[in-house]
Design a protein that fits this description.
The chain has 523 residues and is mainly α. It contains 21 helices and 2 strands. A two-stranded antiparallel ribbon has the order 1-2. Helix 3 runs parallel beside helix 7, helix 7 runs parallel beside helix 19 and helix 17 runs parallel beside helix 21. It is globular and about 65 Å long. It starts with a helix and ends with a strand. This is Oligosaccharide repeat unit polymerase. Keywords: Membrane, Transmembrane, Transmembrane helix. It comes from Sphingomonas canadensis.
Length: 523
């Protein structure tokens, strides 16, 4: 007899001619696979974008002398950008739900913005979402500019954001529709055993790396001197730490009662803790927690408010607590008092202070100013992305990430012909928009975000085909939450997808030379 879940899982779009051969665990299907958004919530999101990104920042700027240069032009550009962001809510379709590619990245960015700066919601004049002041206290050499030049730079950056979002939407809505491949997929076997084996192997690799660095205390103290140079040549260990959560997420999706399995809960906790201890990436730890929350949404078929709010508070604790540990430059020990619940108020204050200090560096604007001043990179960072699999021991002069170039060229002011062996280096973040411009100017922005729009369109259509496959939703959430078009994210994503493919073979989701019935197959 066919279960209710099996019947739901057969509700594929008929034009794809897919049929279920065996049941699929988990409540994954239904008529609204992206979790619909109510009209009232859509209106609230549009109102937030217009009020908090345009109206309130403009009101605050009216009384700020540092915001006056080109204020009218910059506010108009911000309005255009806000309207482009609001497209899936202004021109809503029922399929544009919470997990839809047009919506989820935007909601995640809004969530991260509010997590990093929660006061912006209640004190928008003191902590604006968009600061229209053009004065900068950045240490970057390229940011030492007159106020009017900084105003033009800010305007250029907002226009680049508009161009990127317009190219993305055009490609998503009107780009070519590449046929979704109809893969033969099978019901996995021994999910717990294989997941524990994979996660356990990664755990041993990570623990071995930590011990080789002198232990947790020594590693965390060493991070205070900068992670880019510290982890030179150790990318495989950092990847092992960051990738654990993807394996655990697959296990989470196939487990009948995930929150009642102590081994799975321990695996989730270890993945997050070891990830942040090993890589030092606070955003990586937050994304790890967030991926589990989003997959929980999908399992339940609804948005879960309380768990999401809990994840936001945990994110603030991670930002403040780990930031306090990593940036206590005067000490050669680790003070774990930052994670004491009794000290949560101080930890929260430290988190907000750290976020403010990082924002004052204007690292993305520094990279844009460097591109205007010293010229383009002409694909250097994209060569780094496609050659990530080549060890630096074999190719010592292999290009590096945009973050590293940003520090060396735009913060230190070194010339383009310097070698990284000659200097100590850090990394200052460069987002996907500025990186695309830094490499190939405006055409680069159009190409990169056009390709991103086509990828998201393909994912949206693939979700209709593989709506009943838990493994697909793990890959789907990872691609939408962790890849925004930057080369650094591309490298991390490519490694994770490769690992998940190997994991899929070991689980039996994908098989070679078998006669067993598949879960999905073409008719």
């Amino acid at each position: 007899m066919t279960s209710a879940i099996d019947r739901e899982a057969t509700e594929f779009q008929p034009n794809f001619r897919i049929r279920i051969r065996r049941g699929i665990a988990g409540k994954l299907s239904g008529s609204d696979i992206f979790l619909p958004i109510s009209p009232a919530v859509r209106i609230l999101i549009v109102a937030y974008l217009l009020i908090y990104r345009v109206v309130l920042p403009f009101a605050a700027a009216m009384f700020n002398p540092d915001a006056q240069p080109l204020l009218g032009l910059r506010v108009t550009a911000e309005l255009v950008y806000a309207l482009l962001l609001a497209y899936p809510f202004l021109f809503a379709k029922r399929e544009y739900g919470w997990l839809h590619p047009l919506v989820l990245p935007l909601v995640l960015n809004l969530g991260k913005s509010l997590t990093k700066n929660p006061f912006s919601l209640f004190f928008p004049f003191d902590s604006p979402v968009v600061d229209l002041s053009v004065a900068s206290i950045s240490r970057a050499v390229t940011m030492q500019l007159p106020l009017i030049d900084l105003a033009w730079l800010n305007l250029q950056y907002t226009l680049l954001l508009c161009l990127a979002q317009a190219a993305y939407l055009a490609a998503f809505l009107f780009g070519p529709k590449i046929t979704v491949p109809l893969l033969t997929l099978y019901r996995p076997k021994r999910v717990r055993m294989v997941s524990i084996a994979f996660a356990g192997t990664l755990f041993l690799i990570v623990v071995g790396f930590i011990l080789s660095q002198g232990g947790v205390n020594t590693l965390l103290v060493a991070m205070r001197g900068g992670r880019s140079e510290l982890f030179e040549g150790s990318g495989q260990y950092l990847f092992a730490a960051a990738a654990m959560i993807s394996i655990v997420a697959v296990w989470f999706m196939y487990e009948d009662q995930p929150w009642k399995n102590p081994f799975l809960l321990a695996a989730i906790a270890l993945s997050v803790v070891l990830g942040i201890i090993t890589t030092g990436s606070r955003s990586g730890a937050i994304l790890a927690v967030l991926s589990i929350i989003l997959l929980w949404w999908k399992r339940r078929g609804q948005v879960l408010i309380l768990p999401t709010m809990g994840a936001a508070l945990l994110g603030l604790l991670i930002l403040g607590g780990f930031g306090a540990i990593r940036q206590d430059y005067s000490s050669d020990t680790v003070n774990t008092e930052a994670f004491n619940p009794l000290n949560y108020g101080a930890t929260l204050s430290r988190a907000l202070e750290d976020i403010k200090n990082r924002g004052q560096e204007d690292s993305t604007l520094a990279a844009l100013a460097g591109a205007n001043k010293d010229g383009l990179l002409w694909g250097t960072t994209y060569v780094y992305a496609v050659s990530f699999w080549v060890p630096r021991a074999i190719w010592p002069d292999k290009p590096r990430s945009a973050d590293s170039y940003n520090y060396i060229y735009n913060y230190r002011g070194f010339s383009r012909n310097i070698t990284f062996d000659d200097v100590s280096f850090y990394g200052f973040p460069v987002n996907a928009v500025t990186e695309a411009f830094w490499n190939f100017s405006y055409l680069g922005v159009i190409l990169v975000f056009g390709l991103l729009g086509m990828l998201h369109q393909h994912l949206a259509r693939a979700a209709s085909v593989y709506r009943g496959v838990p493994f697909f939703w793990v890959v789907y959430i990872i691609m939408l939450s962790e890849f925004d078009g930057s080369t650094k994210d591309f490298v991390d994503l490519a490694r994770t997808i490769l690992l998940l493919l190997i994991f899929a073979f070991c689980l039996g989701v994908v098989r070679i030379g078998t006669r067993q019935r598949p879960v999905l197959r073409t008719s």
